[in-house]
Amino acid sequence: MATVRNPVIGLVSQVGWTDVAEAVDRYGGAESGMHESFEISIKDSLSWDELRTALAEYLRTPIESVVMFGDWLDLSPKKQGETTSLDIIRQEVGYRTLVNGTSPLNVCGEKLGFLAAALAAEFSTSVAIGDYSHDCGYACGRFIVYQPDGSTFSAPEESGGEFWDLELR
């Protein structure tokens, strides 16, 4: 459990896996009929099993319904429509685990913020997501960073580097 201040609405709450799942229910987590994309950047290196287990629990979906993108491509169209796929990029420095996901569940905006907060607390690491509080288009270079202690801050994307990172001021 961690105390989290949501930077968009100023909400302070205790966040754990149950709270994240309840937020998905409250803000809409039902299947939307098409896949929604989401991105999560994690400071530490997490294993496939850690990510898969955490996301299955958050999305309230069977663990078998969370697969690597390559495996997702081999599924039948019907099964693809019921499955969350993850493409994981590893880096040696900066944010070491970059997750590009697609899901038939709505994992965006505030719900993605609740997930980032829970991942930060669960794995004791910083987790960054795109800043959904600004309407700046698909890739605006602004991020909300969730810390393990529940605090958050905004940071711009670092430009010109060989790896993806944030400018911490």
**N-to-C series of helices and strands:** EEHEHEHHEEHEEE
Distance between the termini: 27 Å
Beta-strand residue percentage: 25-35%
Helix content: 25-40%
DSSP helix count?
Answer: 5
- For the largest sheet, list the strands in their spatial order: 4-5-6-3-7-8-9
What is the average per-residue confidence, as pLDDT, rounded to a whole number?
A: 77
| Main structural class | alpha+beta
Q: Could you tell me the radius of gyration in angstroms?
A: 15 Å
* Structural domains: how many: 1
User: Tell me, what's the shape?
Assistant: globular
Number of strands: 9
Largest sheet: 7 strands, mixed
Can you tell me the residue ranges where pLDDT is under 50 for at least 5 consecutive residues?
1-18, 24-32
Describe what is shown at a glance:
It contains 5 helices and 9 strands; from the N terminus they run ββαβαβααββαβββ.
SSE order and pairing:
Elements: E1 2-5, E2 12-15, H1 17-27, E3 31-42, H2 48-59, E4 66-68, H3 69-73, H4 77-80, E5 84-90, E6 97-105, H5 109-123, E7 127-130, E8 142-146, E9 152-156
Parallel strand pairs: 4-5
Antiparallel strand pairs: 1-2, 3-6, 3-7, 5-6, 7-8, 8-9
Helix pairs in contact: 1-5
Describe the structure.
This protein is of the alpha+beta class and 169 residues long. It has one domain (2-156). The protein is 28% helix and 31% strand. The chain has five helices and nine strands, in the order E-E-H-E-H-E-H-H-E-E-H-E-E-E. The chain has a seven-stranded mixed beta sheet with strand order 4-5-6-3-7-8-9. Strands 1-2 form a two-stranded antiparallel ribbon. Strand 8 and strand 9 form a beta hairpin. Helix 1 packs antiparallel against helix 5. The protein starts with a strand and ends in a 13-residue tail after the last strand.
